[in-house]
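FAQ

Q: What does a record look like?
A: Structure on top, sequence underneath. For example:
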């Protein structure tokens, strides 16, 4: 992805860094409000290492290797560090990456296998959080075993490390190329010493991304002698021999001597990794890179200003905003080349880069809507990347990683991202191509898709065939039938919106009809969405609290959570449930039902429970706002208040579930400002309960949209009146255009529930 360096003057380095970020100085140090350790405990799966906004490279410490809480490589409860690898995922529920691990050493360099169950490498070091610092674009820690201070920072495509050694005759580094998170299969590996200060290498790994290619180049400020370890080794005695590729570097150091390392990575080739270093870190100026990284974060975080007297809430807000800037990740090298979905190098443009890491099942809900507000140009760049990926690979990805189709999760939510941008007036992408690709994703067609055979049934599930053939997905024909069908109905509605806008009447009618498909799954006798078999019978037995992870009629949830996923037709769902009063009664029951789950393998993703509402996973994220559609806005305000105050904390265990590539944080950002978009593709925002006295969104054209909460306090959580630009709002909704136009939303808060209607026609 990036890293590499040439010795040039400090002046040249400084000028290059300033030009690279094109940032004007930001007076406020927003980065000082960020705590990168939020989410590194519990099951947040975030990492604390150095990264710049949407950066290609993420140098960060790895404290564990495998199992669920190693998804990011770092877990706050751990007390040892294996080293610092250069690629990481932020808040995902699956693990991958952890490429090109570097570890400073003093003394004998031990690399013997520790066993396939061990979370530690032989060269791991103990550390203390007391001697650890994480800031946007910077990370440091003291390694107790070696008495070495490690510091990391990064540019978009390269990283620079600084290590302060004790006096030693036997100092050095271990560069471990065969290392990875989750102990991935290394199919190809090459490690080459170029000179006494330079190393490069490449490998292909097979795991979540079936064909992940990583190339690196590293340059050291101090010459070294070396030993290459390329013999095969078994993790356990008598176990299979696995290929090994490690470089053991040695040199002498004086007391407090600093040794720097520049690292570049690329998905294309080793030369690309070198060019990324030379383009972005030509000098050995660690502090200059660190300063530029912080400046880039301050620029990103300055998109929203908040006013609050609560320091923890300020930290939670700007950390959430920070987490939204971590991904998707740049995938285009400094020379414009990138790895396509066909797994071939392509010459692209640095000015129109390609991105990777699209967790669309999560991020279509709040992350992408947030980006339409704070950075619509970047969101359109993401859409252009998605359109390009379907051209090269044959279909839109559901969850794309390192130029790979993973087949993970369900739905075809590129349709949502595109429809939402389009309806908000953002159309700097090939609209016709994107629209055609949405239809392609909605149809069952396995031809022309470039992905491994194991991935294809998940990327193109038979559920699409049955939806199109008989109008619903039978539970005896495909797994997770209810969840898939409900998401298909929503995505098909998005397609119908695009079809209508583009004058495609036939497809507008076709997909509008499919959008009503959710009705098939509603069982009036239980008032839940249920699995229906190919004979038209309800699946039995039925238990709305039952969960069998990824192996039942739902996806990472239960009937309690999934029954409410009809964001495009709330009025239709109200009617289906028997009218307003019946709907309210059912919705009330969701939040007061016992939180206990039942089943053979209860999904660990069902977390952050209020009754059976599960804030720790995405299917629930819109539900609290449904009360606004049935004239009970006070209830939305109550529940949003409860979530904001009880399920987000300034603590390593500060998230109720996986961060999920910015989605969990995007929900907090929007709702803490006082609103949320229930249905992406319908440019309308639902008003909740603002956390801050004032929040100002700084729009790209110099305009601002400000939310002011008068009489705001912990007790005053109910909205008493609503004024948009001085005019009273009759219902708790406003439009995206209201934001674009700039202005002020004034909410007067109080401790009592007002009798106010709120319904969106």
């Amino acid at each position: 992805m990036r890293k590499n360096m040439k010795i040039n003057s400090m002046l040249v380095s400084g000028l290059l860094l300033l030009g690279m970020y094109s940032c004007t100085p930001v007076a406020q140090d927003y980065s000082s409000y960020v705590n990168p350790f939020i989410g590194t405990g519990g099951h947040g799966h975030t990492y604390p290492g150095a990264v710049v906004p949407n950066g290609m490279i993420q140098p960060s410490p790895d404290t564990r290797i495998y199992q669920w809480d190693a998804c990011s490589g770092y877990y706050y409860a751990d007390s040892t560090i294996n080293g610092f690898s250069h690629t990481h995922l932020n808040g995902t529920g699956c693990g991958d990456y952890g490429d090109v691990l570097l570890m400073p050493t003093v003394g004998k360099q031990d690399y013997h296998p520790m066993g396939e169950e061990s979370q530690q490498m032989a060269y791991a070091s103990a550390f203390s959080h007391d001697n650890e610092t994480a800031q946007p674009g910077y990370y440091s820690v003291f390694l107790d075993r070696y008495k070495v201070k490690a510091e990391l920072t990064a540019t978009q495509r390269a990283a620079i490390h600084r290590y302060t050694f004790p006096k030693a005759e036997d100092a050095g580094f271990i560069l471990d190329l065969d290392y990875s998170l989750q102990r991935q299969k290394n199919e190809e590996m090459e490690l080459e010493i170029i000179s006494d200060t330079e190393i490069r290498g490449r490998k292909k790994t097979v795991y979540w991304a079936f064909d992940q290619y990583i190339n690196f180049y590293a340059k050291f400020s101090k010459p070294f002698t070396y030993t290459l370890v390329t013999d095969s080794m078994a993790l356990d005695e008598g176990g299979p021999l696995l290929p090994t590729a490690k470089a053991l570097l040695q040199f002498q150091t004086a007391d407090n001597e600093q040794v720097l390392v520049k690292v570049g990575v690329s998905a294309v080739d080793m030369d690309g990794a070198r060019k990324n270093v030379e383009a972005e870190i030509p000098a050995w100026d660690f502090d200059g890179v660190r300063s530029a990284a912080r400046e880039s974060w301050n620029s990103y975080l300055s998109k929203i200003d908040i006013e609050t007297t609560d320091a923890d809430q300020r930290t939670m807000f700007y950390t959430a905003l920070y987490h939204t800037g971590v991904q998707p990740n740049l995938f285009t090298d400094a020379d414009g080349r990138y790895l396509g979905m066909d797994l071939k190098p392509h010459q692209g443009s640095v000015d129109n880069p390609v991105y990777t890491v699209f967790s669309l099942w999560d991020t279509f809900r709040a992350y992408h809507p947030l980006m339409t507000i704070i950075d619509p140009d970047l969101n359109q760049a993401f859409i252009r990347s998605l359109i390009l990926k379907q051209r090269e690979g044959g279909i839109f990805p559901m969850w794309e990683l390192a130029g790979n189709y993973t087949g993970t999760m369900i739905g075809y939510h590129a349709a949502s991202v595109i429809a939402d941008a389009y309806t908000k007036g953002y159309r700097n992408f090939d609209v016709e191509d994107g629209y055609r690709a949405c239809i392609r994703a909605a149809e069952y067609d396995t031809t022309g898709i470039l992905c491994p055979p194991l991935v294809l049934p998940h990327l193109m599930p038979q559920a699409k065939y049955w939806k199109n053939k008989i109008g619903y997905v039978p539970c005896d024909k495909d797994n997770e039938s209810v969840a898939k069908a409900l998401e298909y109905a929503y995505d098909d509605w998005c397609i119908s919106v695009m079809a209508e806008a583009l004058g495609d009447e036939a497809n507008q009618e076709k997909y509008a009809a499919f959008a009503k498909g959710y009705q098939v799954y509603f069982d009036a006798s239980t008032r839940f969405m249920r699995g229906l078999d190919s004979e038209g019978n309800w699946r039995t037995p039925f238990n709305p609290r039952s969960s069998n992870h990824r192996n039942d009629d739902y996806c990472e949830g239960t009937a309690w959570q999934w029954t409410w996923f009809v964001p495009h037709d709330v009025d239709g769902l109200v009617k289906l449930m028997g009218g307003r009063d019946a709907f309210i009664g059912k919705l009330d029951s969701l939040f007061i039902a016992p939180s206990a789950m039942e089943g053979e393998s209860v999904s660990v993703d069902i977390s952050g429970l209020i009754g059976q509402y599960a804030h720790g996973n995405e299917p629930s994220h819109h539900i609290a706002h449904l009360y606004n559609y049935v004239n009970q806005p006070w209830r939305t305000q109550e529940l949003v208040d409860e979530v904001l105050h009880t399920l987000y904390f300034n603590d390593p265990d500060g998230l109720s579930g996986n961060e999920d590539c910015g989605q969990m944080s995007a929900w907090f950002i929007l709702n803490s400002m006082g609103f949320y978009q229930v249905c992406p593709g319908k440019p309308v925002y639902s008003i909740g309960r603002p956390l801050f006295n004032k929040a100002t969104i700084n729009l790209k054209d110099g305009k601002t949209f400000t939310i002011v909460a008068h009489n705001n306090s912990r007790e005053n959580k109910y909205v008493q009146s609503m004024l948009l630009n001085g005019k009273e709002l009759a219902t708790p909704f406003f439009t995206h255009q209201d934001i674009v136009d700039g202005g002020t939303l004034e909410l007067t808060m109080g401790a009592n529930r007002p009798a106010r209607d709120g319904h969106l026609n």
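Q: Is there anything notable about this one?
A: Residues 341 and 389 are 6 Å apart (CA to CA).
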